[in-house]
Design goal:
Helices cover 52% and strands 6% of the residues. It is mainly α. It has a four-stranded antiparallel β-sheet with strand order 1-4-2-3, with no helix packed on it. It binds fe (ii) ion.
């Protein structure tokens, strides 16, 4: 049954059929309202009313029941949800690719241009996020950096949520995930995708990607400091063995630590043409054992999300 309620009466557990506003963020999305982020996004939107489906979710609000509009459609089946997630990942990858290449070639940075990708990630429910992980595990040769960035961004957003970081910080993490490896776009594909052993010079070139990326991003005043920090330092290690600055311990911020854990997790679990990805459990266990490198609390929290 469909019920129209004022947005101020929304609560967790409701199934939202529509948010009555024209913002792209909500589009035609139907979703379970199960996070503070979604609640906040609706409350901040220009919408006054929300259409909820009381057959599929919690009942609430004092809004008038809508006149008979027929039976609401059922939630997507897992197969439909997986197909929708795959389409979203493909669309977001295309958009991200265009934006990152634009930045490298000197276009100005406009947060609004990556907003649709950020919104896809922030609006995803638990099931959709799981399918995002599934789809982005398989990296296509020419899209590896973009799909990795998207996957890391999704993981960082979910981890930020799980840590109860505020909405603005979670959005920063998502943006940082999308941009963190932009420096790789300035490195020859032949080196990035080389399957054999790298020479010392090639390894050094690849390790220069955080500085290259930071150089690109810092020329754009609209890019927040935290995003620059993550771009430059996402390969640092708690024991000081990382690069490029050999930061250690408390010199590495919590947001950077979040990026590191998500970055390595995605790298270990990704399937590439030349390697099988590790299982999530194996990757988490490997990182958990290396608490001199990775923040163990964050690894545990990431595990809780992945298992959820
Ligand atoms: Fe990187």
């Amino acid at each position: 049954m469909l019920t129209r309620i004022p947005k101020t009466e929304i609560k967790r557990g409701m199934f939202v059929e529509a948010v009555e506003c024209s913002e792209v963020a909500f589009g035609k999305r139907r979703f379970f309202l199960d996070s503070d982020r979604e609640m906040s996004a609706i409350l901040k939107s220009p919408a006054e009313f929300v259409l909820i489906n009381t057959t599929l979710g919690a009942v609430g609000g004092n809004g008038a029941r809508l006149p008979d509009r027929g039976v609401a459609s059922l939630p997507l089946s897992p197969a439909q949800a997986r197909a929708e997630a795959a389409a979203t990942v493909a669309r977001s990858t295309r958009l991200l690719k265009a934006e990152l290449i634009g930045l490298v070639t000197g276009d100005p940075f406009d947060m609004a241009s990556i907003k649709p990708v950020v919104e896809e990630i922030t609006q995803a429910d638990q099931q959709t996020s799981s399918f995002f992980f599934e789809v982005t595990r398989l990296k296509h040769k020419d899209e590896t950096t973009f799909q990795h960035s998207l996957a890391v961004s999704i993981l960082m957003g979910k981890l930020g949520d799980a840590l109860d970081l505020d909405v603005e910080t979670v959005e920063l993490l998502i943006v940082a995930g999308l941009l963190h490896d932009i420096g790789k776009l300035t490195i020859a594909t032949g080196i990035l995708q080389k399957q054999g052993a790298l020479t010392a010079a090639e390894r050094s070139t690849i390790k220069s990607h955080p500085r290259r990326g930071h150089q690109i991003l810092k020329s754009h005043p609209a890019i927040p400091e935290e995003v620059l920090d993550i771009c430059l330092h996402h390969h640092e290690s708690l024991d000081g063995s990382g690069y490029p600055s050999r930061l250690a311990g408390s010199q590495i911020s919590q947001l950077v630590r979040i990026s590191t854990v998500c970055d390595v997790f995605d790298a270990l679990t990704s399937v590439r043409p030349y390697k099988q990805g590790w299982s999530a459990g194996k990757a988490l266990g490997w990182m958990f054992e290396r608490d001199r490198q990775f923040d163990r609390k964050l690894v545990l929290r990431l595990g809780a999300i992945i298992d959820a």
